[in-house]
Amino acid sequence: MSIYLALILLGVASGMNIASCNDNTGFTLVPNMNGFTVYVDEYTLGILDNESESMDEFGTTRTYRECLAHATSEARIRLASRTVNDAVFLNTLQQVPLKISNDGVEHFAYSGKCAQGCVYSFLPERLIRDIANSPDLFIHEYAHVLHLATESSSQSKAQAEAYSKFMADERSLLEITYSQPYIPGSCCFWYAATNKYEFFAVTSQAFFLEGSEQRWDWPTTSALLQSESPAAFNVAESYWGISEEELIAAMSECKVPWFELLSDEQWVAILSGIVALLVITIAFVCYYFSCWKKCFKKASPKDDAKFETNEFL
């Protein structure tokens, strides 16, 4: 338990890491997911053909398998409509699998960098229903994949500037417009303000909305994103429209930190070694000072007596 606590404190036990994303033990590949790679654990595999709470446009209840197929299909259609020669999907998103298991509490997240790792969820029923009802949510997590693979690109620099402009100028005016005060760290209406990464993911969601589709938090529609934060809209248009040459060039400069490639077992081994070394060091220090005190007392009892009677003062 102490090792697990140490892992949590050091931030290496949060959800999944690249090493665990690459380990497909206990997972099954779900076929026909429109070019996306989808792995599910045994529990999720068992519910795929059950009816979900999601309905299609005709009011027919979908199975969880149909929900996944619908979400991935919608994502592919929308990506194809806004990207150049499908470059973003073919060079980044296609490489990152979606992994779903019933093994935690996280709803939806991306763990990785440089088009490595995985998008994952530990809440199968809720996640599959949500991305079927709101395909833009599926795009949200894959926006992180694109962003974290191309941070050296000119689009990434422009995106950081758009976020700074939003926080410095636009947000305060929009708080009045929507009667929604901004609370730092909040998870709700101003989630886009969390940091530049969430800003790109959330504005990408709005960017890919179609027709009358609407989100409940800011920005609520694609048209409102364009009018309320023109810089963010332009960045989304430029980023998702990045050319294959620019994309490959930016990805070639992306480096994954070595510690993100370590498996949980390797982290446990490293931390176990650190804990053992600390215990040995503390024991040695205690032993050394204990011996030193005894030796000092034996060598100079007179000095001890002087100290106790304040004769040195």
TrEMBL record:
The keyword ATP-binding does not apply. InterPro entries: MetalloPept_cat_dom_sf, MtfA_fam. Pfam families: Peptidase_M90. The chain crosses the membrane at residues 267-289. It comes from the Eukaryota. The keyword Repressor does not apply. Keywords: Membrane, Signal, Transmembrane, Transmembrane helix. GO terms for molecular function: metallopeptidase activity. Residues 1-15 form the signal peptide. This is Uncharacterized protein. It comes from Triparma columacea.
